[in-house]
User: Fold this.
Amino acid sequence: MSSRNRIYKGVDLNKGAKLEEPVTIYANADIRNRVKIGRYTYINNGTTIFYNTKIGRFCSIGKKCEIGTVDHPIDWLSTSSMQYNIKEHFDYKSDCSNFKELHYNQIEGCTIGNDVWIGSLVVVKSGVTIGDGAIIGANSIVVKDVPPYAIVGGVPAKLIRYRFDKATIKKLLELKWWERSLDELSGVTFNNIHKAIEELRGDKIKKRDRLKPIKKILKRFKS
Assistant:
């Protein structure tokens, strides 16, 4: 079976990464081990997604971002990874074959929700969670969690505003529209948020109503 993913020239895609088709990864991106990317998400040119990062569905990630960057110890003798990861980076045997690596308890990766837009040249620190529907402005450095539907930016990234009011955000988080198929989303008025919510909610009601006759029949069999 052929893949529906679009993987462009120069992409370094680790075998341990999992992509929920369809996903698009543009030229020269670097997708590390144990990364998970949801359907209809695209990763733009030159972006690195570090180990163990989880990215939801319908996300748009800009050029030359670093998502889930790894930490270095700041209270040890050195900040160099030679203390705990020398074998990966260096050929050191001729210098000292007895050099022993230390264990460094490193937080790996971060969690990106669904429908998240991350601008170009953004850095997201490991351990950070970015909520559903959030927007990260270009050139920002994200060092702490971002709430759902928040717009943040700067160095370090700070809250600018929310995309919608609290009531609208609550409805969207309840609906979880990104869990539906494109067929189910077909006909939804995407460019009118309140109408779209009404349509998505109405679809749920219709599905419930269609199940009522079946439930009545089942009751008859039980009685």
Confidence is low (pLDDT under 50) at residues 208-212.
